[in-house]
Amino acid sequence: MNKRILLGVCGGIAAYKAAELVRLLRKQGFEVRVVMTAAARQFVTPLTFQALSGHAVHSELLDADQEQAMSHIHLARWADLLLIAPATADMLAKMAHGLADDLLSTLYLAAECPVFAAPAMNQAMWGKAVTQDNVARLRQHGVTLIGPAAGEQACGEQGLGRMVEPADVCRQLQVEQRPGILDGVNVVISAGPTREPLDPVRYITNRSSGKMGYALAEAAVSAGANVVLVSGPVSLPPPAGAELVQVETTLQMYDAVIAHSRAADIYIGAAAVADYRPQTVAERKIKKDRDIGNIVLTKNPDIIAEVARLQPKPLVVGFAAETDDLENYARHKLQAKNLDMIAANWVGQAEGGFESDRNALQVFWPGGLQILAMTDKHTLAAQLLNLIAEKLHEKNPVKSS
Ligand code: PMT
Fold it and tell me: N or C: which end of the chain has fewer CB within 10 A?
């Protein structure tokens, strides 16, 4: 695990969260050096960060004393990881365009280590096309964004733009910084919808886009796992490094999942599997002038429940997609399907669940619960995998350590 974090603090009300972040990072064994922009120093004093990090805070690019102690290039080389939190719209713009007019933006340009940024700004600023362009550019340049989160903002408005809570930033760094967290672990993930044909041109399906399952597959590959992704029909690019098995119907998904799960350490059921299929499939297109009456449905196998019956049983993680009574239904599914963990999400709401780029999860396991707040599906996937890796470690300390 990387040990030396250079924390860049920008000027925004969320700068106070960076103080807690330093405390948590140090608690996890990281050595932390802090760089503050001039605006950040208007919100929190350097003394706070000096006391929490145990080191003098760096602020000035052209300060002969600081350069003598540790030059900005030396500081950039010292870091195993650069984390900018909070990252303002201004700093993201500078980074996206290679501007280097202060110490932090210069360090970003000079850094050769992984870079993470936890944006924090007003919701309208975050939503502005130019900010989104900058964010897309930074992602292309390899910067990992953590958040932002949604909720009430300091300005009184509601929306996307809050800095992700320090504990969640730490959780994501843990996953990213432990590429070996699932080293050599065999993970099977299902994603997307299934399609149940009525005739050669029509089918019954659901709204799943596959984004959640594909994000999990990418995160599992990053964590060092051997990943088989069994996917229903989606329009997403195949995740690099995963073996993709494309299926259409529930019965095909069942066959592929069971075959691959026999050698799996973990099965994650993120697919929205059709519970029923038409009992008969017409060989030719059903004509509208023919009264077809009712469609008779027959029950599909419960894939995840069957995986949980395999011997040896992999660690089985289900999802629960609910429009009401989320916790009760999720807890029931956890028990009824003999799962080790279940990640419950609301569907049919304005944000999260099906199709959305973002989601929030309530994760339950026998005797435990963890809330993962609304964020982008990639961040969420990394957070969920961290919990899953912890469970695997409890179950099988040798395989997952
Ligand atoms: O794909 P996205 O657009 O990103 O949306 C993500 C998602 C909402 C689809 C995802 O987060 C999610 O909730 N997936 C599970 C959806 C679902 O089918 O939930 P369920 O409550 O009906 O099923 C419970 C569990 O049993 C799931 O793990 C499901 O994969 C599994 N199941 C269900 C039926 C069945 N016949 N076989 C199964 O394995």
Answer: C
Confidence category of residue 399, pLDDT binned at 50, 70, 90: low
- Record the pTM: 0.69
Report the length, in residues, of the chain: 401
CA of 365 to the centre of ligand 1 (A): 17
Gap from CA of 269 to ligand 1 centroid (Å): 6
Specify the ligand 1 atom closest to the Cα of 306: 39
Spatial distance between the Cα atoms of 32 and 35, rounded to a whole number of angstroms: 10
Taking residues 163-187, report their average pLDDT: 82
Q: Tell me 13's DSSP state.
A: T
Question: Confidence band (pLDDT; 50, 70, 90) for 252?
Answer: very high
Q: How are beta strands 297-299 and 4-9 bridged, if at all?
A: unpaired
State in words which class domain 186-400 has: alpha beta
Any catalytic annotation for residue 10?
no
CA–CA separation, 168 and 150 (whole Å): 14
Higher-confidence position of 1 and 59: 59
Place of tokens 């030059």: 71
**130-146 average pLDDT score:** 88
Q: Taken in order 156, 159, 165, 169, is the CA torsion positive or negative?
A: negative
**252 three-class SS:** helix
- In the chain, CATH 3.40.50.1950 sits at 4-176
Q: Using CA atoms in the order 140, 144, 149, 150, what is the torsion angle rounded to 10 degrees?
A: 10
| pLDDT tens column, 282-331 | 999 998 877 778 899 999 999 999 999 999 999 999 999 999 999 999 99
- What is the rounded distance in angstroms from the CA atom of residue 363 to the CA atom of residue 319? 9
Among 10, 113, 155, 170, which one carries the catalytic annotation? 155
- Residue ranges, comma separated, of all CATH 3.40.50.10300 domains in the chain are 186-400
> Domain 4-176 has what CATH class?
alpha beta
Q: Is 149 within 8 Å of 374 (Cβ atoms)?
A: yes
How high is the pLDDT of residue 306?
Answer: 98
Using DSSP, state whether 76 is helix, strand or coil. helix
**Contact present, 32 and 1 (Cβ < 8 Å):** no
> In this model, does residue 401 exceed pLDDT 50?
no
Ligand 1 atom closest to Cα of residue 356: 3
- What pLDDT band is residue 65 in, cutting at 50, 70 and 90? confident
Tokens 């964004």 correspond to 145
CA 170, CA 23: separation in Å to the nearest integer? 11
